[in-house]
């Protein structure tokens, strides 16, 4: 294609190759930072999960938004674990018969210590830090 003699060539033509590369990098970095930010959608220390009365003795409660499960294996004894199954990353879906159950592939974890009771998971649920005070359970 022939260029008209009036059309500028090089930097005077508008956008330089360097400007395009810099702009593309800036767009990519902005997208990466936005994806990793998480900030306001994830709970942090000091987040009140609920009342101790909501957590049944011999069972527990899953706090999906915070990705935490709190159990009460014995009266007045509260334990907390990550609610993310260690097999494929699904959130656990129920607590029954002394186990925390992942409904994706059938893994079961002990409500007392988060250990694997039934696979396919091979690692237990990592502990979460909570504080129990004045009838409330709070992320520590």
UniProtKB/TrEMBL annotation:
<keyword id="KW-0411">Iron-sulfur</keyword>
<dbReference type="InterPro" id="IPR005805">
    <property type="entry name" value="Rieske_Fe-S_prot_C"/>
</dbReference>
<dbReference type="InterPro" id="IPR036922">
    <property type="entry name" value="Rieske_2Fe-2S_sf"/>
</dbReference>
<protein>
    <recommendedName>
        <fullName>Cytochrome bc1 complex Rieske iron-sulfur subunit</fullName>
    </recommendedName>
</protein>
<dbReference type="GO" id="GO:0016705">
    <property type="term" value="F:oxidoreductase activity, acting on paired donors, with incorporation or reduction of molecular oxygen"/>
</dbReference>
<dbReference type="InterPro" id="IPR006311">
    <property type="entry name" value="TAT_signal"/>
</dbReference>
<keyword id="KW-0001">2Fe-2S</keyword>
<feature type="region of interest" description="Disordered">
    <location>
        <begin position="120"/>
        <end position="140"/>
    </location>
</feature>
<dbReference type="GO" id="GO:0016020">
    <property type="term" value="C:membrane"/>
</dbReference>
<keyword id="KW-0408">Iron</keyword>
<dbReference type="Pfam" id="PF00355">
    <property type="entry name" value="Rieske"/>
</dbReference>
<dbReference type="InterPro" id="IPR014349">
    <property type="entry name" value="Rieske_Fe-S_prot"/>
</dbReference>
<keyword id="KW-1015">Disulfide bond</keyword>
<comment type="function">
    <text>Iron-sulfur subunit of the cytochrome bc1 complex, an essential component of the respiratory electron transport chain required for ATP synthesis. The bc1 complex catalyzes the oxidation of menaquinol and the reduction of cytochrome c in the respiratory chain. The bc1 complex operates through a Q-cycle mechanism that couples electron transfer to generation of the proton gradient that drives ATP synthesis.</text>
</comment>
<dbReference type="GO" id="GO:0051537">
    <property type="term" value="F:2 iron, 2 sulfur cluster binding"/>
</dbReference>
<dbReference type="GO" id="GO:0046872">
    <property type="term" value="F:metal ion binding"/>
</dbReference>
<feature type="domain" description="Rieske">
    <location>
        <begin position="47"/>
        <end position="139"/>
    </location>
</feature>
<dbReference type="GO" id="GO:0004497">
    <property type="term" value="F:monooxygenase activity"/>
</dbReference>
<keyword id="KW-0479">Metal-binding</keyword>
<dbReference type="InterPro" id="IPR017941">
    <property type="entry name" value="Rieske_2Fe-2S"/>
</dbReference>
